[in-house]
Design a protein that fits this description.
By secondary structure, this protein is an alpha/beta fold. Helices cover about 35% and strands about 15% of the residues.
Length: about 210
């Protein structure tokens, strides 16, 4: 399974590092090929830089750009027919409001842009800093909430979450991203607005 990450910000780099450490082959893609190539060269493992259109050749594509930039990035990537596309964005509006919701979600709007892709919402509730940590509590790893409409794509994403040592939490169909994305904004408020820091993650516990 080849993986491309579109976007070389904190989350893109963090996912590239953690997935490469798990033995995955990664293409880190962006508009500035020289910049992403330099970033990729600093990440241990099988990580190379590439253009956004090259990312479309991967089996799984992680869209790691801010939501307002998603449409332009996807236009460069092409139709992504049959590809698994993981949307990690949080549609943040003014004063930590939802720029998209609650009758739709960023993930659903992205699915409309690439209707032939298999979009899965995931990783939007996890801070980038957690991706660089050696987990101090391996019995209770961070949960990654994910949602998607395609069983095959969901299984791929679930496997990736497990590969990096996190715990997948299946939240059902893609429309449930309408509920996952507000959790992402809550984490931003807890972590940065209320001073809890970025080493926190939501976790649902059964009793």
């Amino acid at each position: 399974m080849s993986i491309a990450i579109i976007g070389a910000g904190a989350m893109g780099k963090g996912l590239a590092r953690r997935l490469a450490a798990a033995g995955e082959t990664i293409v880190l893609a962006g508009r500035d090929k020289d910049k992403v190539a330099a970033i990729a060269a600093d990440i241990p493992g099988d990580v190379t830089g590439g253009s956004i259109d090259q990312a479309a050749n991967a089996d799984v594509i992680i869209l790691a750009v801010p939501y307002p930039e998603a449409a332009n990035a996807l236009a460069e990537a092409g139709p992504l027919t049959g590809k698994v596309l993981i949307d990690i964005s949080n549609p943040v509006g003014p004063e930590l409001s939802l720029a998209v919701g609650m009758t739709t979600s960023a993930a659903e709007e992205i699915q409309k842009l690439v209707p032939q892709a298999r979009v899965v919402k995931a990783f939007n509730t996890v801070f980038a800093e957690l991706l660089d940590l050696k987990l101090s509590k391996p019995d209770t790893p961070p949960q990654v909430i994910f949602a998607g409409d395609h069983e095959f794509a969901n299984h791929r994403v679930e496997a990736l979450i497990k590969a990096i040592g996190f715990e997948p939490l299946d939240a059902g169909p893609l429309k449930n991203a309408r509920f996952i994305e507000p959790v992402g904004l809550m984490m931003i408020q807890l972590g940065h607005g209320l001073g809890r820091g970025s080493r926190i993650a939501p976790r649902f516990v059964e009793y």
